[in-house]
Amino acid sequence: MAKETGRKLIAQNKKARHDYLIEDTLEVGLVLTGTEVKSLRAGKASLVDGYASIDGGEVWLHNVHISEYSQGTWTNHAARRKRKLLLHRHEIDKLIQATQETGHTLVPLSLYFKDGRAKLELALAKGKKNYDKRQTLREQQDKRETERVMSKYVRGRRQ
Predict the structure, then answer these.
(1) How would you write 128-141 as a 3-class SS string?
(2) What are the DSSP E strand ranges found in 83-127?
(3) Cα 98–Cα 103–Cα 106 angle in degrees, nearest 5
């Protein structure tokens, strides 16, 4: 049997980058049951409304939906159960200190398999205000417009 290598994306939280200012990211492992892994291999997961919290010196993932495995029996898992995240002690201490600052939260950005193991990209983020979101959208639109003008100019010079 060939060993799995590389990175296979399962789910992404695209809205998180819009709603939060990402300050730092970490790659963390997850404690999963067998049916959860099989469901993830089928690509049935959603990170929308997901967040992480620190409870008793451990980091827990909440509100992440991993669909029940279709061939699962009584051993099937609950779709939105809280899951333990695997981090080193110094990383947990750093997150505890950072989340005690006002406005900081832990948000999952993506869920993927890396060399056959389920990993989660966890972000230390700060919530954006509405005017920050509008400013970001305006900057993206301006960048797109300048790229369009530049490409038109470059095409015109080639002819």
Answers:
(1) CCHHHHHHHHHHHH
(2) 83-86, 104-114, 117-127
(3) 60
The answer, as to whether pTM is greater than 0.85, is no
- Closest by CA to 94, choosing from 59, 47, 43, 142, is 59
Could you give the CA distance from residue 84 to residue 157 in angstroms, rounded to a whole number?
57
Tokens 């832990």 sit on residue: 106
Residue 159 confidence (pLDDT): 60
139: left (phi over 0), alpha (psi -120 to 50) or beta: alpha
Round to whole Å and give the CA distance between 87 and 61. Answer: 12
61-80 burial by CB neighbour count: b if 16+ within 10 A, else e?
bbebebbebeeeeeebbeee
Residue type for position 21: L
User: What digits encode the pLDDT tens for the residues 33-92?
Assistant: 888 888 888 888 888 888 888 888 898 989 888 877 777 667 776 667 888 899 999 999
Amino acid identity of residue 52, one-letter, is A
User: Which residues touch 32 (CB under 8 Å, ≥6 apart)?
Assistant: 40, 83, 118
